[in-house]
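Incident log, structure service

09:12 report received: a user says their structure output differs between two submissions of the same chain.
09:20 pulled the input from the user's history:
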Amino acid sequence: MSTKTRKVLVPQPEPPKKNSPYYQLAEEYGLELVFNPLFHFETLTARQFRDQKVDILKHTAVILTSRTITTHFFKLVSDLRCTLPEDFKYFCASERVALFLQKFITVRKRKIFFPEKNGSSSDFQTIICKHDKEKYLVPEIEERASDVVAMLADTKVKVSTCDVCRIIYAELTPEEIDSFDFLLFFSPNGLSAIKTAYPEYQQGKQIIGCLGEGTRDDLEQAGLQVHISAPTREYPSMTAALEHYLQEEKKAAK
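09:34 re-ran on a clean worker, output below:
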């Protein structure tokens, strides 16, 4: 194993505390950490939203598929000075989203629905279809259609969509990307950022790590080899999985 300092792209904001596991790994294994989020989301302006000719108040319910969508939807509601009625309904793709929703509304005065089997698309569809008299609005990320609309295509549910935010990729050069020995991905959007900046990207000898099954699936479908994967029962975090990889690599070099 080479003793040179190896460079790791960690697509997250730099941790404020020096006791982060990342810094401990860097010291022990000779790593140079580069904290650089590969993308961020930007709320559309009120004018950009109005250009879509969508009237939120002509709907009786909203379908919220993620915490990101929820954040930007309510930011737009505020920017538009729109007051959602007391009987407005909220259909959340998971309990996690439903709990996050409490940051924006008073739960006891609203009606919230989510699947008991967390993340179950079939259960979510069943819940929505039970309320087929509602006029649903599905907020989305610009140029990225949600799976919900396709899921409800063959039902009697009335659904319309609107964009509430767009994704902004980090400005990277092919040379910067090639300079890393390790690329870590925490979302499929990270791969999109790399491909946008470097359409001809080839993995070569780079070590790739990922968080989440969806991220892993996208990486493998793109023909990339994933060396480090989290969470697992043994390695619940990216740092734990990275440490295990480095330990095994060190043993193999002896």
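09:41 both user submissions now match this output. Likely a transient worker issue. Closing.
09:42 reviewer note: The chain has a mean pLDDT of 93. The domain at 42-167 is CATH 3.40.50.10090 (Rossmann fold).
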